[in-house]
Amino acid sequence: MAITYLTNLFLSFKLGESLSCNLAYLTLLGAIVILSFIIKYFFKCFLMKFLSSVIKHTKTVWDDAFIENGVPERIALMIPAVVIYYCVGLLFPVKSSGIISFIHLICLIYIIIICVLILNSVLNSVDQIYNSFEIASHTPIKSFLQMFKVIIVLVAIIIIFSVLMQKSPWTLLKALGALTAVAMLVFKDSILGLVASIQLSAQRMVRKGDWITMPKFDADGDVIDISLTTVKVQNFDKTIISLPTYALVSNSFQNWRGMTDAGGRRIKRSINLDMNSFKFLNENDIERLKKFQYLEEYLNNKTNEIKAHNATLKIDTEKFVINGRKLTNIGTFRYYIREYLKHNKNIRDNMTFIVRQLQPTEKGLPIQIYVFTNGTNWVNYESIQADIFDHILTAVKEFDLSIYQDPTGLDLRKALVIR
Question: Shortest CA distance to 340 belongs to which of 272, 388, 289?
């Protein structure tokens, strides 16, 4: 046998019998290790390159994912341990069963660790392949895959301990039953994250790409990643906030996906009019306002309607202006805003469309615009909103109305000068 030949060879150099025997074992083991790495090198340099070139020319995507995540490379890492495991049993003599068992033990532990790495790469590949489909944006599986990784690591640890202790894994599992409470405490975040991930996916509460707002955590931006324990949100200032996954279930948050899906973004803004500027319109006012776009037909119809109403009830509006019905500058202005918005191509007419008065306050009478733009892009939305209020705030003066604002230092100086 090889071990006998090597022992005799070292004895010929007049070395001691014990030393010659040990050197023979080390030399044979070294030769086996070198052989295993030569086989691994051949696999990696020739078979791997051939496999990669074949995969690159295929039309499928999944095989590229396995290459990118290093599945073949990690399989190659197992070759040395497999070669050593079998060669040691074949080349070492039976009387060396203790050494063989020790080497087999090391090889088995190494193989288990490599198997964990291979399965980890496979799960990463599955996630990459799944993300290439449209359904991935609605139902991400990254958190589930991470849970599988945790389970795989736990199973590997139990198997390694069973190999070291020469006992069945089931025996260890029974012994670990008493440590369940400790395990639940250690993996609390993972367990809560798994439950939360299931709820988020099943109810489609949030998905990658959603804009969410969560003031409690200063989160206001797009979801860029959902994992087992964290959800990453990139705020609009480009900062990234990591939220606990279960926080999205246990706390309230606002998801703007409905706005994006609807294709319209809401404008909800008010202007405060000074109530001292409100008045009834006289004939001159009406004739002047008829020249404004959108108002001529309205004023003609409204004037005829009011005259017919007052005539029917025999109301004399000449003596007292408040008798009967009269057109007002505030009502006409409100109609003008509504018509102006209806003719604005950037405003949707198939969604909620309101121009209304709110409760008067010490700040004046709020006129609120509640409409939706025809797009959801933030920059365009702000531009559309600014253009609308630029026009409205400027047009107020044409109706003999004024915007309410608190007095400034300049107002006070003007009042003193007038006095």
Answer: 388
